Amino acid sequence: MGRVLTQAKLKKVLAELRQKRKKIVFTNGCFDLLHVGHVKYLARAKRTGDVLVVGLNSDSSVRRLKGRGRPILTQRDRGEILAALGSVDFVTIFKEDTPDKLIRLVRPDILVKGGDYKADNIVGAEFVHSYGGKVKTIPLVRNKSTKSIISSILRRYAK
């Protein structure tokens, strides 16, 4: 079985893992042009529980959120790259602008977002707290972002 799953397959896998008392961690994002900031963030997220599920914004969702020219990599490529990381157990793609519906499907024990979010502004936080789950923020790696990588490439090759 691959690690990039449909939401229906993910729901079944998570049910089996819950029977084994595994602690499910969920995070989400665009993860376009994977970089060291992403890798460190995902490794830290994984350490908060047993199984890390990454909700990946679809191509259409990324375009709506990030604008024209994004994503750089397709959802299929981004999903496979994320799934290749040792810290990521499963990846599933969502089409909506927020992961609210996916969070309700996953029902994580721990919801994780980057430190640029305030806990009370994290989509799904209220739902996760409603059943006793936890919401955690993880500090970002300074000066590491997809936007800065794209800007650097454009500066270097703009002539």
State the secondary-structure class.
Answer: alpha/beta
Total DSSP helices: 7
Q: Can you tell me the CATH class?
A: Alpha Beta
What is the CA–CA distance across the termini?
46 Å
Number of domains: 1
Describe the largest sheet. Answer: 5 strands, parallel
Topology:
Blueprint: H1 7-19, E1 24-29, H2 36-46, E2 51-57, H3 59-66, H4 75-83, E3 90-94, H5 100-106, E4 110-114, H6 125-130, E5 134-138, H7 146-157
Parallel strand pairs: 1-2, 1-4, 2-3, 4-5
Provide an overview of this structure:
The N and C termini lie far apart (46 Å). The protein has a five-stranded parallel β-sheet with strand order 3-2-1-4-5, sandwiched between helices. The chain has a single domain (7-157), classed as 3-Layer(aba) Sandwich (Rossmann fold), CATH 3.40.50.620. The mean pLDDT is 92. It is an alpha/beta fold and 159 residues long. The chain is built from seven helices and five strands. The chain is globular and about 60 Å long.
